[in-house]
Amino acid sequence: PFRTFMLKTQLLDPSVHPSQFLLRLNLSKCNLGEAGGLAVAGALRSGNLELRSLLLSHNNLGNKTAAAFG
């Protein structure tokens, strides 16, 4: 499951899909954990500037993930 999630984070990468931007992303209650949260933070940091809403509640993300989102 985590490998699939990592591959799907490529969808957030503007170098892969330069004309597509997410406006809303709801990942609440997806059981992401620390590694999944860090993967989302890294993918978003790569340049998805159109995101207006990000929901990550109930995922047990931890302090490292919180710091990664700044």
Detail the topology: elements first, then pairings:
Elements: H1 2-8, E1 24-26, H2 33-45, E2 53-55, H3 62-68
Parallel strand pairs: 1-2
Your description of this structure?
Strand 1 (24-26), helix 2 (33-45) and strand 2 (53-55) form a beta-alpha-beta unit. The protein has 70 residues and is mostly helical. The model has no long low-confidence stretch (mean pLDDT 79). The chain is globular. It has 3 helices and 2 strands. It has a two-stranded parallel ribbon.
Strand content: 5-15%
Cα separation of the termini: 26 Å
Query: What is the residue-mean pLDDT, rounded to a whole number?
Result: 79
Largest sheet strand order: 1-2
For the secondary structure, the number of strands is 2
Can you give the helix content as a percent range?
25-40%
Spell the H/E element sequence: HEHEH
Shape designation: globular
Low-confidence stretches: none
Q: Please give the count of helices.
A: 3
Largest sheet: 2 strands, parallel
Structural class: mainly alpha
Question: Which short descriptors sum up this protein?
Answer:
3 helices, mainly alpha, globular, 70 residues, two-stranded parallel sheet, 9% strand
